[in-house]
Every structure is written in C-alpha cells, then in structure tokens.
Amino acid sequence: MEKEEQVKSPKARKGNEKKKLKRRIYAIASLLVLLGVVLGIAFLTMPGSKKTVVTVNGEPISQQELDLQYDRLPEQYKSLLPKEAFLDEMIRIKLLLQEAKKQGIAVTNDEVAQQIAEIKDKVSKEAFSQLLQERKLTEKDLELQMKDQLVIGRLLNQTILSKLSIPDERIEAYYRDNPNEFTAGPGEIQVSHILVKSKESADSLLEEINAGTDFHELAEIYSLDGASAKHGGRIGFISKGKMDKTFEEKAFSLKEGEVSSVIETPFGFQLIRREADSLTFTDAKELIKERLLLETLGTALETFVNQLRSNSVITYSNRPTPTGEKEPLYGSSFRDSGEGVCKDDGKAVIRLYTASGCKGCPLAAKSFEEVLKGFVGKIQFRHWELNTGDNLATPETEKGVPQRELGMFKKLDRDGKVPFSIIGCKYYRAGNFFATATEESKELAAVISSVVG
Hints:
Layout lengths: L9 H4 L3 H16 L2 H4 L13 E5 L2 E4 H9 L3 H4 L4 H20 L6 H14 L2 H10 L4 H21 L8 H10 L10 E9 L2 H12 L4 H8 L3 H4 L4 E6 L5 H9 L9 E3 L2 E7 L6 H30 L3 E3 L18 E2 L6 E2 L2 E8 L6 H12 L6 E7 L4 E2 L11 H10 L7 E4 L3 E4 L6 H16 L1
Parallel strand pairs: 10-11
Antiparallel strand pairs: 1-2, 1-7, 3-4, 3-6, 5-6, 8-14, 9-10, 10-13, 11-12, 13-14
C-alpha cells in the first residue's frame, strides 16, 4: 500500500496534527502566491540570445526567457493573459524572490524533493509524465519552479499571513448575511467525499468509518482531493448533471448521514457521505474564515508587492505604448488615458497613490492638500497609502486597498511607481514633475479644473 494510503490508528494520527497545520498554512499561502507561480514561472539560466526586455533591481529578464515561459502557458490562459501582462507577473515574482533573499529565506533541496514526491504520490507515473509534457517541462524545471513557490510561500507566511486575523464577529456576520450559501436549493444536496488511489485503501477507510471513526477526520488526513480534504471532505452543494455520473447516482441515492459503499470513478476510488441540507455555523465557520482570510490576504499581497515596486528600479527596453494611450497633453506633465471622466455621486474622482518611506510622496501629498482646498464639494478624493492599505483622505483607518482601486492603479501605473496620480480616470502621472509644491500645485489645479468643468 502506498505511503499516503496507509491507514493509521487514531492514536498514531494525533502525531500528524502539527504537520497538518503546517501544510494548511502553506496551502493557504500558495493559493495567494501570485499568478506567475501558479502558472509555473521559474527564472532559468537561458542559453542563446541575451536581449533584455526589463531589468528589475539590476537583474535582467531576457526576451528568450519571456518567450519560453509564455509558450509554456496552457492555451486557455494565453487568451486571458497577453504577453505584456505575463511579463508583469514575471516582474512581480522577481520582486518577491529578491525580497525573500534579502530576508534570508531559503528552502532546502530535501524540502523541494518532498513536495515533488507528494505530487507523484497523488498521480500515476503516466499522469505525471503527461503533466510535464503538457507544460513543456523537464523534472529539473519543475524542481526550480517548486523551489521558487516554496520560497515565496514562506515569505508570504512570515510577512503577511502570520499577521492576519479574522475576528469571530465578522465570520458570524457573513454567515448571518448570506444564508443561501449555506442551505441547499431546489434539487441540491450537500455531500462530502474521500478520494484515494486504490480500492484496498477505500475498503480500509470504510471499515474504520463503520467502526465509529469520524468520516471528516479521515477525509482530512487521507483524501487526495486537497481542496475538500482541508474541510473534512466537504464538497458543498451539488445538483444533478454537474458531477461524474457514477458519483452523482450514488450520492443522490443516499439518506442524510449515510456513507456509501466504495465506488470507482475516473479520479480514483471514492467514499461519499450525504450531509444535512443546511450547513451549521460550526461546520461553516472554517470555510467562511478561509474565504475572508483569502480576500484579506489578496489585498494585503497587492499592497506588499506595490511597496516592493515603489522601492525598486525597474527599467524597460523599448516598451511599446499601449493601444489607446495618447501622448502627454500639450503644456502638461499628465498623460491622457483615453478614458472618459469617472464620477462618484456626480463628482470627479481624484486618486493619489503613495507609500510611507517614498521620497517624492510628501511633496505630492502637500501639493494635493493645497490644491484640493479650492475644490471642496466638487470632487471625491482618495489618497491610498499602498503599504498600509489606508485611505489617508478619511479619518478612519482602512486596512486594505479595495480591488477596484488597486485595479485602477495597476492598469495605468504599469511600473508600480509612487507617487502616482489619477485625475478623474482621464489623466494620470507618475512621480512629481516640478521641484516645488507651488509649481506642482499650479499644474495639478489646472488638470483637476479640466475634469471638474
């Protein structure tokens, strides 16, 4: 019987609790590692052409490296991620790896080997080889990617994840305000499952369940479906026509609380448990907590990366001007985005993005402070401090920049530099153009006046 399928006694299982917790922490962190890691970006020593497309704090990314990594993307990702956006993901990964190195974060070859061994344990040799072939990877490439992923996961855990918390009051409010998410709709049932590779393992687990061992405990330890295993095997609510036919027929034949016999599906051998048609708060609490944690972590991660960008030197070689972007306005340091003026409650929205410790940010903040005195009641002003997530234009202390606000910043500020100003979504500028607040204020007042009307 293979390693992960050896069914241990309840006493032996207790020794795994700390390991399970550690795996869970890394799993959560890995979910939020930037898209580049998820898509398999690894920085390799490339033969041939050394043409550089961008330099990140002195470290180059070559055209050949960009082309190779992009070529490895599944076609469905390429349709959603243009090459220029993919390059931006490579830059983000480079920044995170550089920061990890500064903090002395590293992983051993044994840790990398262990992670790859766990992947191999969960799939057949043929499936593993097919995965490498589809991604145009060698096993050495996979080792390099895994090393980067583990390093970044450890960095995120130390700098972000370990400092986040979701209060119980927020979890309770989510459960109370979203009842439909925790109750089966018409034609739906709630199920949990355990997935293993062999019938022998499934039979052994079923014997334990029939002897009184908790189904969800076994699922958390032994199920190969990582997404549901961490929640005790809970898949959630399903309806007919959405699952494998064999799985679906067995699931809908069960009564509440009943566990199925062993079934074989294209994924392996499975046990199914029919759950109650509603999820209690106790059962939903960890699911809600993880969802809210991921949302919070996503915002915190964007803020963290933007802070790294603001303190970095990123130099592009012959970067093209995006379609639709116009040249700077005559007599102005601002550029025209080609967009119309955006408003909130009938007032033009003015945005300033800064970061604490940024050398040019105090001058920008002072200029805005002076100019906006003349536009009271005419504009909506948002001053986002990216490394703290606070909107400095409000008396409250925010703890994260909303995704919409970050999206606006990322769309126009491709290099991630601060200070960065967006005037009514129409005009934007990175940095300060003039040496004094007086000159900056004159320029800023003229641009704001043009969107206020």
